[in-house]
């Protein structure tokens, strides 16, 4: 069995067994600031802390898509307030997009990104996608990067994010093709960020069109997955699996989460962020359990928005994201403090 769906009401037993109860408390927005808006379109962020510095990565281009001029900008900061450009990763003729930054077991930075090639010089809206491959680049210092190279995941499978756990990187790819433009997920593992082995192909639900996925790990080595559902702004799905991560149980999370990300704070508490639609598209933050999502805080955002990067640091959740509520799509950094429940 690769995937099983259980009713949300039936998750209580599972939560008790893991010591994970529904989240309590609130989320306080401490601060939010715009940190970059130099390009016509600045979007798709991720965030990491490495060697006592902050690293924020995102795509710069003329527009959301389709455009052939997407490059990856890397910003760095010592205090999270003053930011400077450390590098730009580009590849001629390739639209680099949606970067994810992580720290390898050997201490290097890894930049995972999509790479799309479009045909013809016509206006952007008329271009057709020729090929799409996930690419990766590496850096010792965040300023000097290797040339992006394709990973071993098949063409057309977008490996969206890799999370490292005990020396091994795990991540889901998604693809939209085959009969009736079917949506499919594949879980992969790697030890070097380039070469990947297939682990499982779970199905969250017959009614789910699975898309972007973030995975994290709990203290018992179980893997938790937050899965975007591309069907009619449908609710996300939360999945859980024990090693070797071949059998999965999924639950309807109750809310859309587009551009999903989450972190584990300790004692099983999880906080997520992504795009929801409380009154139009917004970037929201909330608590996540194995029973679903509890949105609590809407960040200043609107229009083209989401794709947050999350780092838990010294009692604050640092969130990079992009939004276009002030005009063109720009990069923002928020600090959020979880308040304990009574």
What does this structure look like?
The longest helix is centred in the first third of the chain and has 8 residues, at 11-18. The chain has one domain: Neuraminidase (6 Propeller), CATH 2.120.10.10. It is globular. It is mainly β and 342 residues long. It has a five-stranded mixed sheet, with no helix packed on it. Strands 11, 12, 13, 14 and 15 form a five-stranded antiparallel sheet that branches. The protein has one helix at 11-18; strands spanning 3-5, 26-36, 41-50, 53-61, 71-77, 84-89, 95-103, 109-118, 129-139, 149-150, 158-159, 163-165, 168-177, 182-190, 196-200, 210-217, 223-229, 237-241, 248-252, 258-266, 269-276, 282-289, 292-298, 306-313, 316-323, 330-339.
How many domains would you count in the coordinates? 1
Q: In CATH terms, what is the architecture?
A: 6 Propeller
Q: How many strand segments?
A: 26
Major beta-sheet overview = 5 strands, mixed
Can you tell me the residue ranges where pLDDT is under 50 for at least 5 consecutive residues? 4-23
Biggest sheet: strands side by side, in what order?
Answer: 1-19-18-17-16
In the CATH hierarchy, the third-tier topology is known as: Neuraminidase
C-alpha termini separation: 40 Å
Secondary-structure element series: EHEEEEEEEEEEEEEEEEEEEEEEEEE
Briefly, what CATH class?
A: Mainly Beta
Backbone structural class: mainly beta
Q: What would a concise description of this structure say?
A:
With 342 residues, the protein is mostly beta strands. Helices cover 2% and strands 56% of the residues.
